[in-house]
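lol ok so funny story. i was supposed to be doing the assay writeup but got distracted and ended up predicting the structure for this chain instead. priorities right. anyway since i did it might as well share w the group, maybe its usefull for someone
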Amino acid sequence: MNLDIDGVNCRYEQYGEGKDILLLHGWGGSVDSWIPVTNFFATKGKVTVLDFPGHGESGFPAEDGWTVGQYADWTKKVIDRLGIAGCDVVAHSFGGRVTLKLASTYPALFDKLLLTGCAGLAPKHSKGFEAKTKMVKGVKGMLSHLPGGEKLTEALQGVMGSEDYKALSPAMRETFKKVVEEDLHDCLPKIGNETLLIWGREDTATPLWMGQTMEQEIKGSALIVFDYATHFAYLERNAEFLRIADAFFFPPKGN
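and the output, tada:
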């Protein structure tokens, strides 16, 4: 199914009936990233799962790129159009960024939040990384004054950029840069939703300290850590993840 949201197509799917649960995928993911989670919760309520712009079968952001805030605004319009405000949310990685932005800005938009491997905090870089970044910026500055400098800069970024960056089309690279440079730490104390954090202890994309910081800063939140799991703990430990998520969203009556 598709919606036009401000000229950008939204591919979404809905399954089941009852309590609304929204699934928001990570960077590079899609509706298909959630298949085992979708199948499980479709027996419990009404699941809505979508492709973010630039992912799956949805359209693309503007060529100058989107910020997390623009993704959040677009997602809120999807929620309003579908009439699912007040839904519970399960968000992974980049989907967590969008959730943090929305939950801190629109307190009534969501009910409960389950964030797994949630991105949004500025990484702690080593001195070597900082030196490399400074060098790259300096070289790019010099190249900009040379004939063909734009192509040279593009080649440099292709060699020295992250693997995620290299895999993107040129149209999505500006978005990627804006997204990863945005620190959402200030959003955390503004979130009042009941929040459960699930993390893989071996997560290197969003290290465990990020989950621990979120637990400290989001009032009433709790953190569960899966040993021997990585950034995709919700898939690697799927049965355990679903059992915990089920108890969180659908507690036994009387609790």
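The beta strands are 2-5, 8-15, 20-24, 46-50, 87-92, 110-116, 195-200, 222-226. The domain at 2-122+183-249 is CATH 3.40.50.1820 (Rossmann fold).
back to the writeup now i swear
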